[in-house]
Amino acid sequence: LPGLQALAIAFALEVSVGKTNTVMALNNSNVLLPCVFTTCIGFQDLIFTWHFNSTEMIYHGKIKSKASEPFLVARNPRVEFVGSTTGKDNNISILLKNVEFSDAGKYTCHVKNPKEKNAEHNATIFLTVVQKMVEADNTVTLIIVSVVGGLIGLLILFMLIKRVVLFIIKKTQDGKKECLVSSSGNDNTENGLAGSKAEQKAPPKA
């Protein structure tokens, strides 16, 4: 069915920039813009491009097949291809050199695979450029971790004390039982109750 074929093609090619779609870079530094693609049926003469803010093409490459690495068609002088497509992952990441504040914005990795009836997919990553990295304030996190750790420690201590107390109580009760048994035996012997050692046979009648 045409509908099922279109659905299969739509899900055959996938493009991803990783778990997070935001990247922060220092001014005048180099920053990696990650992108990988997957395909269920392979690829032939695949085309991939990187766009800045959806309009400016900063990298254009082609890949003949899985056995060959991408070759450059066009690129911005400050962009370098750092991926590889002959290994396990189809990595088409780029490196943006000497980042400036004007480089902040949206970067889109676009892939087109002729083998899948020119199925096209893309993924977007957002770049923020800062003058200096600000250390995250982890005070609240540390307080929470300390409180949770303290509560767990108290719980473990309580359980240990409980076990010790129960052990002492059990030993004390066992000792009392032994005393009662011993006392009962003495009483029976002294009073000459049935079954005791003090019981004697009546003298025979003359």
From TrEMBL:
Residues 178-206 are annotated as: Disordered. GO terms for molecular function: sodium channel regulator activity; transmembrane transporter binding. InterPro entries: Ig-like_dom, Ig-like_dom_sf, Ig-like_fold, Ig_sub, Ig_V-set, Myelin_P0-rel. GO terms for biological process: cardiac muscle cell action potential involved in contraction; regulation of ventricular cardiac muscle cell membrane repolarization. Pfam families: V-set. It is found in: Membrane. The keyword Transmembrane applies. SUPFAM superfamilies: Immunoglobulin (SSF48726). This is SCN4B protein. It comes from Zapornia atra.
